[in-house]
Every structure is written in structure tokens, then in C-alpha cells.
Specification:
Layout (H helix, E strand, L loop, with lengths): L5 E8 L5 H10 L13 E3 L1 H4 L5 E5 L8 H10 L2 E7 L5 H15 L13 E6 L13 H10 L3 E6 L8 H13 L3 H4 L4 H14 L6 E2 L1 H12 L5 H14 L6 E2 L2 E3 H14 L2 H10 L10 H4 L2 H4 L10 H8 L10 E3 H8 L4 H8 L2 E2 L8 E3 H14 L1 H10 L6 H11 L6 H6 L2 E7 L6 H8 L15 E8 L2 E8 L10 E6 L4 H11 L10 E6 L9 H12 L7 E6 L9 E6 L2 E2 L4 E2 H46 L1
Parallel strand pairs: 1-3, 1-4, 4-5, 5-6, 11-14, 13-15, 13-16, 16-17, 17-18
Antiparallel strand pairs: 2-3, 7-9, 8-9, 10-12, 14-15, 18-19, 19-20, 19-21
Helix pairs in contact: 4-5, 8-11, 9-12, 18-19
Length: 631
């Protein structure tokens, strides 16, 4: 897990313990009866050590009094320490105690939790000299050693003479450094459970709190790059059935969270931290079992002043995996949505989703899947940095190349038709005085048309997805004037019962828009049902007062309180009264945004065409006069 490039393995032990014989047996694969007291440091390249990119240093030490300072210096700089003791001598427990005390003292680690201390391995040497050959270490002695010295991560029986477990010393020592036990056992495994609870929920795409074969395969593929075979599934189920006394590990052929947790705990008990770290790293964790900063926010974007404000296709695909189970109904339960975003800390989900309105069914138990997707589009538009981090907590690994491409795509330039056609997320700003109808309008856009205005919630933003001309667009509507320079459409709401105040407010709010980048303009006269007899008069009056102020704009009279059966609508009024067909405000907003761009190209295209025609005719005439003159 660590990014270390060098691992220092230091062998310590009493005189004649077999340290030097172990080193020689490793480098020569032979046993030598007569050896020098201490061999020089041995450098083991990655090809032999077994870990890509990691060079290993195998260091022998002396136990003599004269070399005490030198040995202590090696202990101080060690990444892992192996205490070597002959199996035939007895007194292993006391030897481990003496050496761990010395190690703790030299490294000044007595105040540290054991998981933060240098890892220690206990090596019993000369196992070929035991009376009963190949006898395992006494389990009672091992239990005492591990209980008294939890920094001991492994106990290995070896024989330099038989070359038994010599290479395993190096491989296990490297793993003890690169894949530390500490974060998995600290605080009684609290960080471990938090991390793997998140991983379980990410893999549990259907949200039933159990992992089916496909979901177990997600963990297997993302962690190890392998497909999840039928044989592996059968082995896991058989093992859990054998171990499950309380019948809580399985539900049919699905693994419950209790079963998943049991498997993780078994890895911990067996000391197989490499597999645990491989899984944790694949889901974004660093060596402290915290989400990496470059996982939460791509480092390639950290150096950019401009950030993408639209989700990439792969991000949408990742989010879509959580709604696949509900695709048939087109609805996702509210509780499922809440549990999903709870994977992120409160600071992300609270700021991003508080006061955001999304379309629900009439019972208010489900969000539409369209609004689920729109919610993340909305958050990406309003706060890309936090949204990218939120997606990381939901298990999305950012594609740097794709993100950079979306920076260019989302940076719209006025008159750039190609960029405009690529855009799929549009932002509408509602501007109007208090009680002009902003909350009612936002509620209409998320299908609250059957509610009385007195029960309509005052959202700060609403988001939903709509189809327009066979393309899906996300429409974000809010009343945040601080984003005036970024919106695609400014919608001014006029209260006809207090039109003078509304018009003054409109003129004041025009100041928030940059003069060189005015958005498209739309004026909605709300509560039109209250003044339907004066529609014609009001239209002329408003147009007259705004023509020198607002510039190019569209004027609509609407009644937002209409209980229309068609979603996202309001009744539109013309000069003589209400129209027979309701106005679909959402599509009208999108149409208005796209229409100006189309008109730009149509008008300018016609101008360019006429100009070219005139230029061509003029050039032909000049050529004709020139030739006549030559004659």
C-alpha cells in the first residue's frame, strides 16, 4: 500500500542465533557451516523481492557489546525487524521480550500505539536441530507472544540448512511494510469497518443490503482485475455456510453485510493484509485508510483555474448503475437516494442537496430517475469541486482525460454553435420581488402542479431532465443572483398586482448581469388570471417601459396556479385571454435558450450568404470592365 521504494529488513538476535546463515542461505541458496560473524548489507532487486518497483535491503547485525551502537543505528532506521532465535534453545518468549523492549527503547516508541510501531517478525532458526523435526511452534507460546507484543506480525519456522522458509522471510517482511496491519486494527477496527462498509454499499448497486453474484463480481474486478467465477462464488458460500452459526451471513446465494464483514475479519486474523490493502486501494484509500485527496479531486484538475461543469459520460454511467434496479418504473425510492449520498460526509451532501427540489411521485416516496440524474448535473454546475468529491465517495474513479475534455466542452462561447449543441445542462435564473411567484414556478418545474400554492416549498434551486427535439436536457432553475454571469437564461417575474415595484426591481436586478455577456431574456407576468381583462393594456405598458431597458426579450403572461394535468406547465395568456393549450415552461425555457443560438446562425448565415453574393457579383463586374478595357 505504501509508496516506499526501499524496504530495510534488519535481522537481530543473540549470538549464534543463525542470523548470518539465513542471509547467506538467501543470497546463495546453499548452507555454509563456517560463516563470518556479520555479512555486509545485501541489496535485493524488485525482480527477486517480488514487489514491483521496491528494492529490498537485507541487513545482518552483531549482538556483541562492541557493536551495540551500530546495531542500534540499524534498528533505528529499520522498516521491519526480524528477531531470530534458535528453535532448539528454548526461551523464545524471553528472547522476544528482551528484543522488543530494546527496539521500543532505541526507537522511542513506548508512547505509540502498537500499530504505529515498527513491525516485528519472530524467526525461529535451526529447526532442523529440533528433536521432533517440522514440529510447529507451540501455540500457547505464540498466543502469549502476540498478546504481550502485538507489534509482532508474523512467526516463522526456518532452517538455513534445509533452506526452509528462507525466501518467505523476505516476502513476508516486505508485505509487513507495504501492507501494514495498523489501520485495520486501530481503535478496534473502527476505520476498517467504516471503509469496508462504504465499499459494500458501493458494490450493492440495487440497495437490498446483500451482494449477489454480479455485485460480488464488482468487488473482485475492481480490486483484483479478475472475473468472479462460479467456482469462487460456490467456495465463498460454502465457507460462510460452514462458519455461520447464527445464519446471518447469507440470504440464499447472496452475501449479507454480516457475511462480508466476517470475510474481512478473517483476512485480518490470518494476517493477509496484502489482499485487504489491494481492495482498499482500488476504492480510493491511502495508507492511513482515508480517501486519497487525488481520488476525491483529480490532481490534473487541481492545477486548472477552470473546472468542468458537466458530468462526463462515464460518471453518468456509474450513477446509472445505482438506478438500474428501478429502471422499469422510472422511480428510485427516496430512502435509497438518501442512503446512497450518506456515503459522503455531511459537509458534502448537506451543502449540495439542502433546499434542492427534485421531481417526486404523488405519494412523495420516490424520486423520478430523471430527477436523480438531474440532481447530480445540477450540483456539478453549481459546485464542481464538491460534486467531484461526492462522486468519489460513491465509488467513481475519475478519468483525467475525459474530465479535461469536458472543460473545453462546458466552456460555452456566445455564437459557438458547436459548443452550444454539445451542452446538455442549462441554467435559468429567476429574478423577481418577494411573492412574485419564484417558488411557485420552481415547484411547477418539478411536477408539483397539483399542490396549492400555500403548501409549496421555498426551494433555492430545482433540477429535472426533459426531452426536447429527441435530446435529453437538464434544466436547473434557481434564484441565486450571484451566478448571474453564468446563466443561460434570465427569467424576470413581474407581479401584475404590483407592477411598478416589479418593474423597478427588474431594472435594479439588470445591474447584476455583466454588460458584455447578457444572457437570453424572458419576462413572465405571473398571476395573469387576476388581470386577464387588462392583458392587452398591460402588455403595451410593460413593453413600452422595458424596451429601452431590457433589450431583446420575450414577454409571456402566465397563471402558475393552474392545476393542469400536464407536468411542468402553466396557463399562457394572449391578448384576448388564456390559450387553449397549456404552456410547458420547461421546454419553453430550453427552446428559448436554443432558439437564440439557432437564430444567430440563421440570421448571420443569411447575411454572410447575401454578402458573398454581392461580393461575387461585384467581382464579376470589375473583371468584365477590366477585360473590355484590355480589348
Amino acid at each position: 500500500m505504501s509508496e516506499k521504494k526501499n524496504v530495510r529488513i534488519v535481522l537481530v538476535g543473540d549470538s549464534k542465533s543463525g542470523k548470518t546463515s539465513i542471509v547467506i542461505a538467501f543470497i546463495s541458496e546453499t548452507f555454509q557451516e563456517d560463516v563470518i560473524s556479520v555479512v555486509p548489507q545485501v541489496t535485493i532487486p524488485p525482480s527477486i523481492g517480488g514487489e514491483e518497483g521496491v528494492t529490498t535491503l537485507l541487513i545482518d547485525t552483531s549482538s556483541s557489546k562492541e557493536k551495540e551502537k551500530e546495531t542500534d543505528g540499524q534498528i533505528q532506521n529499520a522498516d521491519v525487524i526480524c528477531i531470530v532465535h534458535p528453535a532448539s534453545n528454548g526461551g523464545l518468549e524471553q528472547a522476544v521480550k528482551n528484543w522488543t523492549n530494546r527496539i521500543t527503547s532505541v526507537r522511542n516508541e513506548s508512547h505509540k500505539h502498537w500499530s504505529e510501531r515498527v513491525p516485528v517478525m519472530v524467526i525461529t532458526s535451526k529447526n532442523d536441530e529440533k528433536e521432533t523435526k517440522n514440529e510447529e511452534l507451540n501455540p500457547e507460546v505464540l498466543d502469549v507472544i502476540i498478546e504481550d507484543h502485538p507489534e509482532v506480525v508474523n512467526c516463522i519456522e526456518t532452517s538455513a540448512k534445509d533452506l526452509a522458509n528462507i525466501s518467505e522471510i523476505v516476502s513476508l517482511a516486505i508485505q509487513a511494510v507495504l501492507y501494514p496491519a495498523g489501520p485495520f486494527v486501530q481503535e478496534n477496527g473502527v476505520k476498517r469497518e467504516k471503509a469496508f462498509s462504504r465499499i459494500f454499499k458501493i458494490c450493492d448497486k440495487d440497495g437490498d443490503e446483500k451482494l449477489n453474484k454480479k455485485e460480488m463480481g464488482i468487488y473482485q474486478k475492481q480490486s483484483f482485475g479478475d472475473d468472479f467465477s462460479d467456482n469462487l462464488q460456490e467456495n465463498i458460500i460454502a465457507h460462510l455456510q460452514q462458519s455461520d452459526e447464527g445464519l446471518t451471513y447469507l440470504d440464499g446465494d447472496k452475501v449479507t453485510y454480516e457475511g462480508f464483514k466476517f470475510i474481512i475479519e478473517e483476512f485480518v486474523k490470518s494476517g493477509d493484509y496484502k489482499n485487504l490493502w489491494t481492495g482498499a486501494k482500488a476504492f480510493g484509500y491511502d495508507k492511513g485508510l482515508n480517501l486519497r485527496e487525488d481520488y476525491k479531486f483529480p490532481s490534473v484538475l487541481a492545477r486548472r483555474t477552470e473546472l468542468p461543469n458537466e458530468l462526463t459520460e462515464s460518471a453518468h454511467k456509474h450513477l446509472g448503475e445505482f438506478t438500474e434496479e428501478y429502471k422499469g418504473r422510472g422511480l428510485i425510492p427516496v430512502n435509497r437516494f438518501k442512503k446512497l449520498i450518506e456515503l459522503a460526509p455531511l459537509e458534502y451532501r448537506d451543502e449540495l442537496f439542502s433546499n434542492l427540489g427534485l421531481e417526486m411521485d404523488q405519494e412523495e416516496k420516490n424520486y423520478t430517475i430523471k430527477s436523480f440524474r438531474a440532481a447530480f448535473d445540477c450540483m456539478m454546475k453549481l459546485n464542481p469541486r464538491k460534486t467531484l468529491s461526492l462522486l468519489a465517495y460513491l465509488g467513481y474513479g475519475h478519468d483525467d482525460t475525459e474530465q479535461l475534455a469536458y472543460i473545453d466542452r462546458s466552456s460555452k462561447k456566445k455564437g459557438d454553435q458547436k459548443k452550444e449543441e454539445e451542452k446538455k445542462v442549462f441554467e435559468v435564473l429567476l429574478v423577481g420581488k418577494k411573492e412574485s411567484g419564484k417558488s411557485t414556478l420552481m415547484s411547477r418545474l418539478i411536477n408539483y402542479q397539483n399542490r396549492e400554492s400555500s403548501t409549496i416549498r421555498a426551494y433555492t434551486a430545482v433540477a429535472n431532465q426533459f426531452e426536447y427535439q429527441k435530446k435529453n436536457y437538464t434544466l436547473i432553475t434557481h434564484n441565486n443572483v450571484a451566478r448571474a454571469s453564468k446563466v443561460d437564461l434570465a427569467c424576470f417575474l413581474v407581479d401584475p398586482t404590483d407592477k411598478e415595484a416589479s418593474l423597478r426591481d427588474m431594472k435594479t436586478n439588470l445591474e447584476v448581469f455583466p454588460k458584455d455577456k447578457l444572457p437570453r431574456m424572458l419576462v413572465l407576468v405571473t398571476k395573469a388570471d387576476l388581470v386577464s381583462a387588462k392583458i392587452n393594456e398591460l402588455r403595451r405598458e410593460i413593453e413600452e417601459k422595458m424596451k429601452n431597458t431590457l433589450g431583446s426579450h420575450e414577454l409571456l403572461f402566465v397563471n402558475l396556479k393552474t392545476n393542469s394535468p400536464v407536468p411542468y406547465t402553466a396557463t399562457q395568456y394572449n391578448k384576448s385571454g388564456p390559450l387553449s393549450q397549456p404552456l410547458d415552461l420547461s421546454k419553453h425555457f430550453i427552446s428559448r435558450i436554443l432558439k437564440d443560438e439557432e437564430s444567430f446562425w440563421l440570421n448571420n448565415g443569411m447575411f454572410i450568404g447575401v454578402a458573398l453574393a454581392v461580393f461575387g457579383a461585384g467581382a464579376a463586374y470589375v473583371a468584365y470592365r477590366f477585360l473590355k478595357k484590355q480589348e
